[in-house]
């Protein structure tokens, strides 16, 4: 897996990703403490609103940036977004009003909504070989999981010698270092084979239209809903289960999150070899179904487990969910890569970024409300149903036979059209990698 780090451009981008993630993790801890300093007991409401603003920025900004990313120099865009995020991090320690937090979070997350899909769409161009790209996806998953484990520990160590306000400085340093690393790379702008048609609306919705017209990506969206159901349960209700139901301490909350992250890391390590032998569809749908089964098992198992078995049952359940979650989402980039031309990838990655956060917006409030107003068993059960629904929907939407090369015809084109001359035989039947674009606006009928 680590052999792909011999590629200098990818190595620098991967290091930039790790450093930026560590900075983001420090900002998460610092923001929680800042909200408590300004709002006291209402800090939860402040953080909830900030999280909602983050999702709105992701959903609204990513498609707009994705529409024009193919026309912009990628390296300059990535550096500019890192500079914006660093600037916000530097300002955050000086705020003294709640509304200032909301405004700055919107600016920072809007920059992230521009940075992340553009970064993700760049990697397939740097690593054109699918085996290398698969390993890059697993390394990226490892980076996210490692950040979840390392950032809280790093924050705890720093807080023992400094005020939380200084954590924002660490965040700024992380983004600046990321920008410097990106500046050492050479990233080519995607070259379109044909000029883009249409106005702002057409360009802005291009990624969404490609996404929603591609059967395998329709299935991916359903799988994302299943993954969001399980992960939202872990993120929102772990602290409640550990502290209120089990009566354990803050360290045990960290252990629970570590069990989930450890499962995800294990899956990321073994996935590259599995994907060499087993199809993405089989692994991803099977993993999503495992999420539903795991959540349902915990909903039934936690109430009947004896007091001595509650804690190990939760840790084991979270570990299994971590494995299944990682397996259901890590191959996502492979599907996006094969579902668009190079010039459309930024828009498609932006569409995935936005649509995935719609799934989070559904799962977050439902699991939080059920856990608080009903029971944790009800929250687990409802997320099991939601994950099962997503798994079943993906099984139906994503065809079992899903070739990349699809025979099709173009009766609407003139015989001398360049596309017919290039890719078609005398019978006007084409067989080439099929993606939604200006010449292929609809998916061929399933056989």
From TrEMBL:
It is a multi-pass membrane protein. Its main location: membrane. Keywords: Cell membrane, Membrane, Transmembrane, Transmembrane helix, Transport. It is found in: Cell membrane. One of its GO terms (molecular function) is transmembrane transporter activity. Residues 9-402 form the Major facilitator superfamily (MFS) profile domain. It holds the Pfam family MFS_1. GO terms for cellular component: plasma membrane. CDD domains: MFS_MefA_like. The keyword Transmembrane helix applies. The chain crosses the membrane at residues 12-36, 42-65, 166-187, 219-241, 253-271, 283-311, 317-336, 348-372, 378-398. Gene3D superfamilies: MFS general substrate transporter like domains. This is H+ antiporter protein.
């Amino acid at each position: 897996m680590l052999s792909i780090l011999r590629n200098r451009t990818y190595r620098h981008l991967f290091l930039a990703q790790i450093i930026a993630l560590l900075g983001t993790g420090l900002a998460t801890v610092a923001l929680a403490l800042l909200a408590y300093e300004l709002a006291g007991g209402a800090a939860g409401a402040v953080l909830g609103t900030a999280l909602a603003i983050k999702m709105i920025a992701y959903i609204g900004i990513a498609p707009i940036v994705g529409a024009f990313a193919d026309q912009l120099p990628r390296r300059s865009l990535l550096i500019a977004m890192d500079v914006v995020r660093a600037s916000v991090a530097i300002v955050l320690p000086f705020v003294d009003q709640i509304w200032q937090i909301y405004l700055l979070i919107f600016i920072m997350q809007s920059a992230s909504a521009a940075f992340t899909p553009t970064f993700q769409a760049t990697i397939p161009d740097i690593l054109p070989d699918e085996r290398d790209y698969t390993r890059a996806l697993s390394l990226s998953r490892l980076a996210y999981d490692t950040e979840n484990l390392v950032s809280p520990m790093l924050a705890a160590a720093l807080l023992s010698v400094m005020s939380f306000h200084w954590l924002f400085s660490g965040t700024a340093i992380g983004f600046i270092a990321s920008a410097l690393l990106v500046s050492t790379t050479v990233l080519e702008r995607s070259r379109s084979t044909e000029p883009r048609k249409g106005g702002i609306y057409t360009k802005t919705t291009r990624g969404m239209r490609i996404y929603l017209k591609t059967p395998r990506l329709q299935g991916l969206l359903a799988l994302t809903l299943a993954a969001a159901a399980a992960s939202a349960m872990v993120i929102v209700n772990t602290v409640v289960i550990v502290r209120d139901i089990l009566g354990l301490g803050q360290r045990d909350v960290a252990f629970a999150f570590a069990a989930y992250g450890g499962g995800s890391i294990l899956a990321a390590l073994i996935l590259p070899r599995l994907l060499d032998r087993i199809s993405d569809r089989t692994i991803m749908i099977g993993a999503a179904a495992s999420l539903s089964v795991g959540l349902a098992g915990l909903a039934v198992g936690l109430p009947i487990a004896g007091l001595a078995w509650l804690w190990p049952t939760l840790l084991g359940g979270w570990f299994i969910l971590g494995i299944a979650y990682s397996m259901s989402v890590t191959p996502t980039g492979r599907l996006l890569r094969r579902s668009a031309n190079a010039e459309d990838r930024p828009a498609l990655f932006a569409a995935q970024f936005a649509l995935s956060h719609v799934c989070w917006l559904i799962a977050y409030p439902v699991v939080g409300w059920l856990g608080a107003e009903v029971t944790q068993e009800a929250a687990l059960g409802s997320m099991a149903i939601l994950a099962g629904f997503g798994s079943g929907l993906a099984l139906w939407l994503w065809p079992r036979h899903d070739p990349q090369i699809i025979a099709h015809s173009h009766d609407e084109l003139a015989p001398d059209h360049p596309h017919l001359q290039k890719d078609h035989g005398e019978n006007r039947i084409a067989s080439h990698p099929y993606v939604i674009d200006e010449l292929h606006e609809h998916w061929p009928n399933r056989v």
